Amino acid sequence: MRHFHRSEFTAALLEPATAHLSCAGVSPRAAAPKGALSPVVKTGRLRVLIVEDEMIVAMSLESLVEDFGFEVCAMAATGPEAVTLARALRPDLILMDVNLIGDMDGVEAARQIRETIDARIVFVTAYGSGEVLDRIQSTIPHALVLSKPVVGSALLRAIERTDPQ
């Protein structure tokens, strides 16, 4: 399992590394080397988990989310990583790519995540076929789906539409 952050994303895809997470005060980095960053404390901002296996797209989403004033608490490139990170960090919102590397796609990852936490999920896909959309809607009713490439204004509207208040 790996938390990707900007400059580490490429290297992390190529070689395994020790996981480090930070969101809402959760940090498996307790045994991190001296001088390592301390966990993020609650900020009151929307906490977002980005699940995307394409580095450029993930970094673009991260930049947009941070520009909106929200916190990216973690990034994952596979379904199992997304499930583990979501259960550990309990983000408010998950931006979920549909097609991920590995055996578990984003729809299945979202289903498993929603079994244990009630995070809002916005799907992001380049493949918006009827079959994919039907599968998303049967798994997460009323889920929002954005097409790639993601435009900032559309992403912000989708995030606002998922707000439970």
Question: Can you put this structure into words, describing what you see?
Answer:
This protein has 165 residues and is α/β, with parallel strands linked by helices. 38% of the residues lie in helices and 16% in strands. It contains six helices and five strands. It has a five-stranded parallel β-sheet with strand order 2-1-3-4-5, sandwiched between helices. Strand 3, helix 4 (106-116) and strand 4 form a beta-alpha-beta unit. Helix 3 (79-89) packs parallel to helix 4. The longest helix has 13 residues, at 55-67. It is globular. Residues 1-22 and 24-43 have low confidence and may be disordered.
Q: How much helical structure, as a percent, in the residues?
A: 25-40%
Oligomer: single chain
The share of residues in extended strands comes to 15-25%
Distance between the termini: 33 Å
How many beta-strand segments? 5
- Please state the overall shape, judged from the principal axes of the Cα atoms: globular
Uncertain spans: 1-22, 24-43
Please describe the topology of this protein.
Blueprint: H1 8-14, E1 47-51, H2 55-67, E2 71-76, H3 79-89, E3 93-97, H4 106-116, E4 120-125, H5 130-139, E5 144-147, H6 152-162
Parallel strand pairs: 1-2, 1-3, 3-4, 4-5
In short:
The chain has 165 residues and is α/β, with parallel strands linked by helices. It has helices at 8-14, 55-67, 79-89, 106-116, 130-139, 152-162; strands spanning 47-51, 71-76, 93-97, 120-125, 144-147. Helix 3 (79-89) runs parallel beside helix 4.
Summary tags:
165 residues, alpha/beta, five-stranded parallel sheet, 6 helices, 16% strand
